[in-house]
Specification:
Two copies of one chain form a homodimer. The longest helix of chain A has 24 residues. Helix content of chain A is 62%, strand content 0%. Chain A starts with 29 loop residues before the first helix and ends with a helix. Chain A binds a DNA duplex (30 and 30 nucleotides) through helix 3.
DNA sequence: TCGTGATGTAAGCAATCGCTGACTTGTCGA
DNA sequence: TCGACAAGTCAGCGATTGCTTACATCACGA
């Protein structure tokens, strides 16, 4: 249990409102503190799970006093819910097809890119978070809604129409593609199983592309 | 939290050594007690995760006193390790290709059957357990070894040979198939995301078959 | 019949968890 | 300059956790 406490950079008088200073800030900025907490919490929740991460760990990662978690997010579950909401938002803006609908090939490339960025990237952590559960009904509802929203976006790119029952199988196929993504990211990040954990982006691109095309194209 | 305590059958003088009486037994049989504990523990660990399940829950599910967990398995982690070992054994005997090697179609049908049995079946719980981690090094090593052994078995059926480096990509493809299995089971069982959680076996068979064939056949 | 080891039971300890309340410190407008 | 409020700190509470110890009970051979 490497409790990596920030050694240096803890006492420097950084008063400049740097826009992306998430971990390790210097105080008196509620908004920045909240962001730092969500950022640190999401990392812990995604990698270690809800129960395994303690609020003291999160606070230490963010360089913040523990009591502030309850002040800003009421409870640990409230913080988890905030993580879910932020992930839901980011995932929505990232996966929204901006211009051309039904450009399946382009969407598939995006999916592959998300997967191969694991285990080092930050995006796959968002996906992992969607698999975590706190037992809280609110957070679980957000998670389900996010996942189903993500499914509909992907399915729409593959030709699914909400008003056409004949395209219903596409919805299921899109969700199977998401399940594949989640499974691969899980094996690469959390389980660290080889060879998939050590495979390069180039190694993964071809077989993943075949899977996604088998599910979404045609 | 339905704490299903055994109502009846708890006081009957069942002295017959029934071979499969796992949950709810009547005492004075150490082997049966151990089996009941492993059975109950695996269920909890697979569905709720390691940290979220308490030894008191497991003992209650098995109808056994809490102290027996430490007596028979030393610690909670020891019980988790026993669950991993049992799952590893069962998975090994189940997936071992008995007669004909390289019969890919038959193996694929087995994989599909494993997946569609979720979320009600008991087999998918074994798979879910492989995604759980206790933080214990021993259990994690067993898990990785099991997963990689499973990968090699599946890859061998698809034409992979350990002594032929040219078939190395097949190994990765087999593991991607396993990742897909795990992802789908996760979404069906733990996350309960629709439509995949409510899809019938018939709905899943076709797209899953396409995915597995894209990865393993050819 | 009785004693001995195996099996099961009950109570509680030490550690850790999330969380709270009282307090201090910094910031900023009047 | 100073008061008022937000932001952050600190110590500790009640509850729960895994685990241990001492005790009770059953099976079984001499």
């Amino acid at each position: 249990m490497s409790n990596e406490t920030p050694t240096s950079t803890a006492t420097l008088p950084d008063t400049t409102p740097h826009p992306d200073d998430d971990l390790i800030r210097s105080g008196r900025d509620a908004a920045a503190t909240r962001r730092a907490l969500v950022r640190a919490a999401r990392r812990r929740f995604a990698t270690d799970g809800y129960r395994a991460t303690t609020v003291r760990q999160i606070a230490a990662d963010a360089g913040v006093n523990v009591a502030l978690i309850n002040r800003y997010f009421v409870s640990k579950e409230g913080l988890f819910e905030a993580c879910m909401l932020r992930t839901s938002d980011e995932l929505d803006t990232q996966t929204r097809t901006p211009h051309r609908p039904s450009d399946v090939a382009e969407v598939i490339d995006k999916l592959i890119e998300h997967v191969v960025n694991s285990p080092d990237g930050d995006d796959p952590l968002q996906l992992l978070l969607l698999l975590r559960s706190s037992g809280d009904e609110n957070a679980d509802r957000i998670r389900r809604r996010t996942m189903e929203h993500f499914t509909r976006q992907l399915a729409a790119a593959a030709g699914w129409r909400a008003d056409d029952p004949q395209t219903a199988p596409i919805l299921l196929r899109a969700q199977l593609a998401i399940a594949t993504m989640l499974g691969v990211v899980m094996l690469r990040t959390s389980a660290a199983v080889h060879p998939v954990a050590s495979a390069s982006a180039h190694d993964l691109a071809e077989p993943l592309g075949q899977v996604f095309r088998a599910l979404l194209a045609g």
